[in-house]
Design a protein that fits this description.
Length: 241
C-alpha cells in the first residue's frame, strides 16, 4: 500500500500540549508506522503569549527525534512545521521568519478559535496568502460557523485555501454533527488532507488507517491516495496542488 503522510501532529517532545517526552514520542511514532504512516510533519503550536519553538530549534528537535527513531529501527521521515494560531501579529511574524512553514515549503498550517466567525477566518487567511504562502486551514470542522455552511468551505477553496480535517472527526469521535459535516466535505471532494492532530498515544494517538480504509471504501481509492499521500508529497516537494 502507498504509505500515508501525516501533515499535522504534536509528536515533538516537551514543547506544547502534545507529547511530554521522548519516550512518548517514540511510542507515537511506533503506532503511526504500524498503520502505514511513513512520513510526518511535526506541527508544534505557535501561539501568542507562549514560549514558541523557534524555526531553528524546530529543525534541530525534528532531526533529533528522527535520529532517535532511526536508532530504534523505525524507518520514518520527519519534517518541521508549525500549527499557527492566528492573531494580530501573525503576518508580521511570518514576514520576519519567526514561524515555520510546513516542511520548509510555501504551505502554512493555520488554526483559529472554534467560535471565530467565518468572515474573520476568511480575512485572516487572505492576509496569510498575501505574504506569498499558501494557507492550509487546520481541522476545518472545529469552526462552528463554517460547519453550518458548507458553501463557506467552497469559498475558501476558491480563494486558494487548502482544507485539512482530522481523522477522528471523520470517524465520529467528536459527535455525529462533525462526522456528517466532514463526510459531506469528502463526498464533494473538498478535503485536501486528512491528518491525525495527534497529541499522545492514547485518546489522541496518531491513528490514520481506519479512516483511510473508510475513505477508500466510501469515496474511492484514487481520492484516498490523494488526500493521505499525494497532496502531502506536494507539500514536501513544495509543489502546487
Amino acid at each position: 500500500m502507498i504509505p500515508s503522510i501525516d501533515i499535522h501532529c504534536h509528536i515533538m517532545p516537551g514543547v506544547d500540549d502534545g507529547s511530554p517526552d521522548m519516550e512518548t514520542s517514540l511510542e507515537m511514532l511506533k503506532t503511526a508506522l504500524s498503520e502505514g504512516t511513513k512520513g510526518m510533519i511535526l506541527t508544534p503550536h505557535h501561539k501568542p503569549m507562549h514560549h514558541n519553538v523557534s524555526p531553528e530549534h524546530n529543525i534541530e528537535y525534528t532531526e533529533e527525534l528522527m535520529e532517535r527513531a532511526h536508532e530504534k529501527g523505525m524507518k520514518v521521515q520527519l519534517f518541521p512545521g508549525n500549527e499557527i494560531y492566528y492573531c494580530d501579529n501573525t503576518v508580521r511574524e511570518i514576514e520576519q521568519g519567526r514561524i515555520s512553514s510546513l516542511a520548509d515549503s510555501r504551505y502554512m498550517l493555520v488554526e483559529f478559535h472554534p467560535t471565530d466567525m467565518y468572515k474573520s477566518i476568511h480575512n485572516a487567511l487572505y492576509a496569510v496568502a498575501s505574504t506569498g504562502y499558501m494557507p492550509v486551514l487546520a481541522h476545518v470542522e472545529r469552526y462552528a460557523d463554517i460547519a453550518k455552511h458548507i458553501k463557506y468551505v467552497d469559498e475558501l477553496i476558491d480563494m486558494g485555501v487548502y482544507i485539512q480535517v482530522n481523522a477522528n472527526s471523520v470517524m465520529g469521535k467528536y459527535g455525529l454533527g462533525i462526522r456528517h459535516f466532514t463526510r459531506e466535505l469528502l463526498k464533494e471532494k473538498m478535503v485536501h488532507f486528512i491528518a491525525t492532530d495527534a497529541h499522545d498515544n492514547k485518546g489522541r494517538a496518531p491513528h490514520l488507517l481506519s479512516c483511510r480504509d473508510f475513505v477508500e471504501s466510501r469515496y474511492g481509492e484514487d481520492y484516498a491516495i490523494r488526500i493521505f499521500h499525494d497532496n502531502a508529497m506536494k507539500i514536501l516537494r513544495d509543489e502546487i496542488i
